[in-house]
Specification:
The two termini are 24 Å apart. The chain contains 6 helices and 9 strands, in the order H-E-E-H-E-H-E-H-E-E-H-E-H-E-E.
C-alpha cells in the first residue's frame, strides 16, 4: 500500500490485515498496523525513492498479489496564482507515487495481480480552480489507460485499474469541507472493494479501466469512465 499512513491508506492496511494478508506500507512515516514499513523521503528524486524501495523489497524478493497506490493530496491554484507550486507538489504526491507503483508492479506483481492507482472524478473535466491537482490526476488517468494496453510491461493476466473518488469521507475533509457527508465515499467501502478485486480477479474491472466512485444517500456505485 503506497501511501499506507494516510487516511485511505491506513484503512486499506487495516482491512487487508484483517483478512490475514501480509501488507507492506510505503509512506513518509510508518504505519504500525502494517506487516512491514518502507519509509521514503518525498523530497528525494523519483529515481532515488524507487531505488530505495526496490533495495528494501529485494531483501526478501516478494511477489505481491496487489499493489495499491492511494498516496496523493490536494492543492488549489490557477494561472493567476500558485499554478506552478501546486503542479510541482501534486506531481510529487500523485504522479511520482503512481509511476513508482507502476514500475514496482512490473518488477514485483504476481501473475493475475492487481495494480490500483488513484485518480479523481474531478479531473475528467476542467479544473480551473485547482489546475495543478487536475493536471496530476489526469496524468494518473493516462497512466492507468496505458498500463491496460498491450506491451505495457505488467505480468501476465495482471490488471491495472484506476479509482476516481468524488469526495472521500476522511477526517480532514470533515474538518475543512463540511457539506452533505451522505454523498462522501466511506474509506472502509473503498478498502473492502480493493480487497475484493485483489482476492477475486473475476470481480475486478478490465485492465486500463477508470472507475468513478459515486456515493449518494450513503450508497456507493461504480461508474465506468
Amino acid at each position: 500500500v503506497y501511501g499506507g499512513s494516510g487516511a485511505l491508506g491506513a484503512a486499506c492496511v487495516k482491512h487487508f490485515r484483517s483478512k490475514n494478508w501480509a501488507v507492506t506500507a510505503i509512506d513518509a512515516r510508518a504505519n504500525e498496523e502494517a506487516s512491514q514499513n518502507i519509509v521514503v523521503a518525498p523530497s528525494a528524486t523519483w529515481t532515488s525513492q524507487y531505488s530505495e524501495i526496490v533495495a528494501q523489497l529485494s531483501k526478501t524478493s516478494p511477489s505481491f498479489d496487489a499493489i495499491v497506490c492511494v498516496a496523493g493530496g490536494w492543492a488549489g491554484g490557477n494561472a493567476a496564482s500558485d499554478l506552478v507550486a501546486a503542479a510541482e507538489l501534486m506531481s510529487a504526491q500523485s504522479i511520482a507515487t503512481s509511476a513508482i507503483s507502476a514500475q514496482l508492479a512490473g518488477k514485483f506483481l504476481a501473475r493475475k495481480g492487481l495494480l490500483v492507482l488513484t485518480g479523481s472524478a474531478a479531473a475528467l473535466n476542467p479544473t480551473p480552480g485547482m489546475m495543478g491537482y487536475g493536471l496530476a490526476k489526469a496524468a494518473v488517468h493516462h497512466l492507468v489507460r496505458s498500463l491496460g494496453a498491450p506491451e505495457a510491461g505488467l505480468p501476465q493476466d495482471a490488471a491495472a485499474v484506476g479509482i476516481l473518488p468524488i469526495t472521500l469521507d476522511t477526517p480532514s475533509n470533515r474538518q475543512y469541507m463540511g457539506g452533505d457527508t451522505a454523498s462522501w465515499t466511506p474509506l472502509d467501502y473503498v478498502a473492502g472493494l480493493l480487497h475484493e478485486w485483489a482476492a477475486s480477479p473475476g470481480s475486478r474491472p478490465a485492465s486500463g479501466s477508470l472507475v468513478v466512485l459515486k456515493t449518494a444517500g450513503g450508497q456507493t456505485s461504480l461508474v465506468p469512465s
